[in-house]
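CORE FACILITY INTAKE
Project code: CF-77B
Contact: R.S. (postdoc)
Sample description: multi-component assembly, three entities in total
Requested service: structural model of the whole complex
Turnaround: standard
Below are the sequence entries exactly as provided by the requester. Do not edit them.
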Amino acid sequence: MQRNNNLLHRIVIAVVVLVMVLPLVATLLYSLSTHWGATILPDGFTFKWYLDLLGEPRFLASFGRSLLVCICGLFLCIVVMLPVIFLVFLSLPGLKKVFNFIVVLPFAVPPVVSSVGLLQLYSDGFLPISGTFWILIFTYFTIVIPFVYRSMANSFAAINLHDLVDAARLLGASTPKAFFLCVLPNLKKGILSACFISFSILFGEFVFANILVGSRYETMQIYLYNTRSVSGHYTSALVIFYFAFIFVFTLLANRIGNKK
Amino acid sequence: MSYVVVQNLAKSFGDTLVFSNINFTIEKGEFITLLGPSGCGKSTLLRCIAGLNSVSDGHIMVEGQEITDLPPQKRGIGMVFQAYALFPNMTAKENIAFGLKIRGEDKELIEKKVKEVIEIVELQGREDHLIDELSGGQRQRVALARALVTRPRILFLDEPLSALDAKIRKRLRYLIRQVQKDMGLTTIFVTHDQEEAMVMSDRIFLMNAGNIVQSGTPDEVYTRPQNEFVAGFMGNYNIVNEALSRDYFGTTSGLKTAVRPEAIFINEKAQGVECTEKAVPGKIIFKQLLGNVMRYSVDTKGAEFSVDVLNSNEQIYNEGDEVKLYFTKSEINELRA
Amino acid sequence: MVKKHYHHMSKALTYTACLGPFAILFFLFQLAPILWVVINSFIYEGEFTFDNYRAIWESAFTMQAFYNSLWLSLISSVLGLLIGLITVNSLRRVPGKIRNAVIAFINMSSNFSGVPLAFAFIIILGTNGALTLLLREIGLIDDFELYGKWGLLAIYTYFQIPLSVLLLYPAFDSLKDEWQEAAALLGASIWQYVYKVALPILTPAMIGTFVILIANAMGAYASVYALTTGNYNVITIRIAALVSGDIFLEPNLAAAISVVLMLIMAFIVMINYTVLNRSRYAKKQ
């Protein structure tokens, strides 16, 4: 009876994984096929689409832009959040409640809603950055706040912050010194895993990029959307490239997360 | 026929044999302890009898009825788990009433029975608390009450006291034994704590590596260990090798022997105790105060003996003293290989 | 005295230096846009009014967008939750190696959403997609309209599954096998155990997951936009079209729709709390 049950559970999981993997496999096949018309399986195989992709300056430029904007947004978030979280955990624990609210806000307010306000506020007036690289950096900063806060809060909770800082102070270090020399090195893993998770989220971001900026600063997601009418095979190669890239990042994030 | 009969019971997980050829009987109302180090198979044996694990071979009978292949629901067994296994979504009272409700008993009757058992385990005033609002000791009382209220044919206790601190453990020991006697409940208790086993049991089944290595009353198992494992597990036995046993105690069987520290005397034999002929010379190399007892380590060249002397101020030796050891004759246990 | 004062000053300075940049950026790019939306939803041609809200009510097109969004969100969330429950339940019963591999895979596939996912769906379920052809050959379907509501339901459900599994997994993990054993020894059948113990314990996690799934679906934009090039009428597409479309822009109407959308979300969260509050156990979770 136990064995039968086990088999049933394995079948359930196999079916779910199959369904989840199907679109990916199909896209992979499509990106490797010469032609795939009105048949169930493709006609022949080729690497042509990947070569096309890597030889396309517009793609490479959009990839570079995506990398740049994601890294900048993420970097900004970490630099700004680190001292905040340090202060919250060291001397303002009352603010934790506020942050628990801040962390759920982006889930309660869809990006489309934010972008309505953002578009009006930053199209002209005191900070006319709509349609530029800058608006993306700042909105990406807001997107990753929850993930950065959670990862870092976890690693702050895992170390004995007060004892560490007290010990460093008794040994003669100032608070900033204690932070850089004693606390920061212990947070390396938390920060790294926050980076990887946030990065893959930002890399797949489309709403802000499309509504606030569009083709004026073409990120990879926008480029992907704009190539929809070029060739399905070419687009597929792009999708697979994107997913492989994200795959490596998620893998790294898992590795680092598990090491703890 | 005995109340519980276990015949040739065997269990293996895949290729690993947990135990085989387990045979024993239990009388109605007995308190039996399965004692052994962790990994000896005692918990698995209990779970097999409860029907939580299937058995690979053998038979289990209760009141003459074969229950080997019955589902756990139909065996009439109550169980208290080490980690309580209380339902966190229910209050103490709801946990206790669960088994009665499942049977579809009358509401007023349930209320009455639950109230009774809450008094027995002394939980008055905590009935309406959720499980995570109770302390460890209180939780285990709820678990006990939950197992008792359905009047099981056998009560199983799987290391129920291991997660509790020493003081509460002692109080609950007493409570469990008291309730068990009052209700005349046939009980199987699993523990790795030999002191707990001795205090509570009518009989102890001492297990090692999937075998019941010795069974008997606590006194029998403690004073008459049949092999080196039992001697080592039950107390601070001095194990003496074959050659020295012949030399010191004059044994002729060519077996190792075991002697309890309190069965050895320093310099003077106790009155009315028959000792072995030879006085063994030795030197005190270490002494340790264990409260009511002073424990000396005595080096006799051939072996080192632990000797317990009642801490009475009269007999005090110091490290380095040369002494003579006398051994109570009836306490020389020859160990089966 | 002076020293103490100085100490206070430096403390205030440190706090400002640490919290200031965050507070400014958070206000400018997270709070201010929401405030703008709320305020301007009540303004039409420079005057305070409820006209924007009346316009929503009177526009069959906008109402349809709400209807479509709610329909997609509710059904895809129910499906996502059910599939998640079944998957997680099975995950608990397979060897650890398989379990970890599947969780890692699902974690990864949660990134597979939005535009890339829409294209993958076009490839397999489009008019000449492999799966469409296969299903047609078997005779299961006549025709599958990927660019209509069933196609969207498929893609929504697809991106809900990983989220649902990842959110439910920890809750299932906290179910102890011992509870089932204890229930069995007390005479409960497997169904009685599920109904009286497992489900009540899982309810808070299930409701929480359901709310997040709904929020996720209500806010979804990229997949619909990419799949239908913005032609299917859901509420996010409607809002975006009013602020960045090519025809005529009505940001204040968009703001009013946004406020209604947020109110719907708040309403769903409130239902969640009301249901949870009915049980003392759930309230403590």
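Facility notes:
- Chain B has two domains: 4-232, 236-334.
- The domain at 236-334 of chain B is CATH 2.40.50.140 (OB fold (Dihydrolipoamide Acetyltransferase, E2P)).
Invoice: internal transfer
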